[in-house]
Design a protein that fits this description.
The complex is a heterodimer of chains A (169) and B (76). Chain A has 169 residues and is an all-beta fold. Chain A has one domain: Jelly Rolls (Sandwich). Helices cover 0% and strands 49% of the residues of chain A. Chain A contains no helices and twelve strands. Chain A has an eight-stranded antiparallel beta sheet with strand order 1-12-3-8-9-10-5-6, with no helix packed on it. In chain A, strands 2-11-4-7 form a four-stranded antiparallel beta sheet, with no helix packed on it. Chain A is globular. The relative contact order of chain A is 0.38. The relative contact order of chain B is 0.08. By secondary structure, chain B is α+β, with helices and mostly antiparallel strands. Chain B contains two helices and two strands, in the order ββαα. The longest helix of chain B has 41 residues. Chain B has a two-stranded antiparallel sheet. Chain B has one domain. Classes of the chains: A mainly beta (169), B alpha+beta (76). At the A-B interface, strand 1, strand 2 and strand 6 of A face strand 1 and helix 1 of B.
């Protein structure tokens, strides 16, 4: 049986002033899967949907998403590089969303499917729990991944992003 | 906050994180993504509102059939 092992490849914490995107570049092809764990918040008034790009490309993406918001459940689908719901400034101060991206077989020659599991934090009735199945219809090995908050917003100070490589052997 | 948006790039081969201003092309792409995000958000909000309205309508119709609130909640 495979014995998965995680290796931290890179990490960054956003400083004062915020940033419009976070990119992990020069990702080595020596792992089986990739995981990104992020704690993030944007400076946008309303909750935004995050964006992801692989190798600088934002095209050929599609997704299906399940979402609960504290009152109801819904499902969505689309053909964009959108991911899940992020905390905006309308949520409780100093609370951050928790995201996990799982990208299996990122260095292979098939199209790249991945999942995004996330929750927003909010001391109020409405908070979002999202689970998405995503596809990048491109056979290139993934060597860089960029995350952006969506719109013209920034990730705020103390948002953190960590990339792990997974070895399943 | 600076006027020009800043990006962080972390080079996994070195572990070094570099902050740099976005290029003009990146800013244009960001603006286009913003427009798309607004359209996506509106579509999502519309879908949520439609689902909530349909649920309320279904609850009202079931109540008229004589179901209690607990019975309605059990099947919706």
């Amino acid at each position: 049986m495979a014995n998965p092992t995680l290796f931290q490849l890179a990490t960054t914490t956003v400083g004062s002033g915020g940033v419009s995107s976070v990119t992990f570049s020069s990702i080595p092809a020596t792992y089986t899967d990739l995981i990104i764990k992020a704690s993030l918040r944007t400076d946008n008034a309303s909750n935004l949907t995050g964006l992801i790009t692989f190798n600088g490309s934002s095209s050929s993406f599609s997704f299906r998403q399940l979402e609960g918001n504290g009152a109801s459940v819904a499902s969505y689908n689309g053909t964009t590089n959108a991911t899940n719901t992020e905390n905006g400034t309308g949520t409780t101060a100093s609370t951050f969303s928790s995201f996990e991206f799982y990208i299996p077989n990122y260095a292979g020659s098939n199209n790249k499917s991945f999942s995004v599991d996330s929750v927003t934090e909010n001391n109020a009735t409405t908070a979002y729990a999202d689970l998405s199945a995503n596809l990048w219809s491109n056979t290139a090995a993934i060597t860089s991944i960029a995350l952006a908050p969506g719109s013209t917003a920034n990730f705020v100070q103390y948002s953190t992003f960590t990339l792990y490589g997974v070895r399943n052997y | 906050m600076s006027d020009t948006p800043i990006a962080i790039e972390v080079d996994c081969s070195t572990g070094i994180a570099t902050e740099r201003p976005l290029t003009a092309d990146e800013i244009a792409a960001r603006d286009a993504a913003a427009a798309q995000a607004e359209a996506d958000a509106k579509a999502k909000a519309d879908a949520e509102a439609a689902a909530a309205a349909a649920k309320a309508s279904a609850e009202a119709k079931l109540a008229k059939l004589g179901l209690t609130a607990d019975e309605v909640a059990a099947i919706l």
